[in-house]
Amino acid sequence: MITVEEYVAVKKALAKAVSYCISCKNGYYYRQDPKQPGEKRPHQTYIPRCDEEAVVGPYIEKKNLKVRRREMNAEIKSWPSEQSRDFYQRVKLYEKLQEIDLSPKKSQMVDGQVCDSKSEMIVLNTLKQLGIPYRYQVPVQTWVTTRVVDFVVGNKFWEHEGMTSKPDYAARQLQKHKEYAAIGLKIGENMMVTTEVQDLENNTSHLKMPTIIWQMVQEGLVTARKVWNTYFRKRRPVP
After folding, report:
1. By mean pLDDT, which of 52-66, 71-85, 109-123, 141-155 is the weakest?
2. For the chain, how long is the longest CA-to-CA vector?
3. Structurally, how many domains does the chain consist of?
């Protein structure tokens, strides 16, 4: 049975395969490169015996890939139309997901957006679900250095703070807010701060989105009606 992963792997390998062809005359191999503009016929180059493996090998591999691609396409063509359409849709989705540049040290959303933390990823997903326009990781110049605000929604700057129980983290956040206040970004006015529930016993923290969503409503970032209709409105069952 053909798998999506194999189909895409063959497709990618062919896209990276050598572009030249190989011909053999009287026991000698010749490399034939694609015809260039102005050339009447493709240019052929003799391949020395010592280079045959390095040059002919990739060409044979390309031919084998083409054979496998023909075999797979023939098999898919024999499937019921609904099955083949579903397969190609899966191929399309798999290729799209593979295009995303996965970051090994960052959390990542399905659209490729890389986040500093899982908490910020959840907040971003919530903003998307509620249809709230936002900017993420916005540079702000303070009198000390360039800081990066987590979110900006409308005219509201938004910092999300995680491990506030850690003294060094809390000290950094305090310094940051001093710098923000000096340039006019003040909590309770145009600066919003959300936090997490601290679990001191396990040295971790927990994100409570219901609390944060309520804070978003109080700050005027979203209406109560919008939140209700998005998450709690009963939908009529599809007949």
Report:
1. 109-123
2. 86
3. 2
